[in-house]
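(Fold this chain)
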Amino acid sequence: MSMVLSAAAVFFLVWIVVRVVGKLELSEMAAFDFVILVVMGDLIAEAVIAEDTSVTGAVIAVATFAVLTVTLSWVSWRLPKRRALFEGVPTLLVRNGELVRASMHAERVNEADLLQAARQEGIETLDDVVWAVLEQDGSFSFFTGQKS
């Protein structure tokens, strides 16, 4: 039972860290970030399993993480008004060609990152953008066309 409680505690710690780190940082992982993530995974496994290195211990820890993941997904689905807490919300970064600096600051997105993402979508200038949105998964969505 203590392994289940340890797994649950670590699960929620990781969930909070992912929410705090931010969407953009998670979507732009470099090789070093990936290595750190793997090392963190190993440390988490050690913290959850403690001295129990048996297959049973690993199965219990993984099953606890899986059950909690499905539970959070179900709760998010059942409580649509609280979904933003569990999944985050898209953030408007550009409106009618103008930067929404408060949103950019809150999401820690700089203009260079936004321009790079726009160029990757074939957009030459932000003047052509009606809306630019930072999605929950850290990707950018650009909408061009008639400005209102």
Summary: The radius of gyration is 20 Å. The chain has two domains: 2-87, 91-144. Residues 55-78 form the longest helix (24 residues).
